[in-house]
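Schema walk-through. Below, the input block comes first and the output block second. Nothing else is stored per chain. Lengths vary across the set, and this one has 196 residues.
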Amino acid sequence: MTRRKKERGRPRSPEVDLGILRAAMRVMARKGYAGMTIDEVAAEARVSRPTIYLRYPGKAELATAALAAYRARGRPDETGDTRADLISRLRHFRKGIERPFGMAMLGSVLTEEHSTPELLALWRERLVKPRRAELREVLEHARARGELREGGDVEAAVNMLVGSYYAQYLAGNPFPDDWPEAVVDTILAGLGQPGP
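--- output ---
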């Protein structure tokens, strides 16, 4: 006779999971990554510290999970219109990075590179790679539809799409209303599909 193993504990609540991630975002919006504490997130989410630690072994895991969940909200679907899809992704990216403490969080991640290398690794895994994969996918689908010339460097185009935001921001130049359109049209022209 086979005995079924008894499961330990209660199943996790999706509402609690979401509450923790949203609380972490609220705390980071007020204090940035450096000022965020597990205690404050627990208080904000109205859960205990152990409840958080059951899900996230530390602050870096919690912060990057919260940011990844935030990034996923409102993410545009691919429509098959290459230009429109790239523009909508750049707008979504800008909205995410310009949330309170968005650029400061990136600065914290880079500052912590040597003392907390797992933070940068998690940032890359949960935020950078998925964003780049979405842009790459749009361009690869465009190539499959014959919209891009053979041999066009999709990786360089992805770097330029993401990098254009940081270049504009760090230069201190105001963002024109048509910033995403101008960037996308320039890149598509270079890949063999001129903008309108």
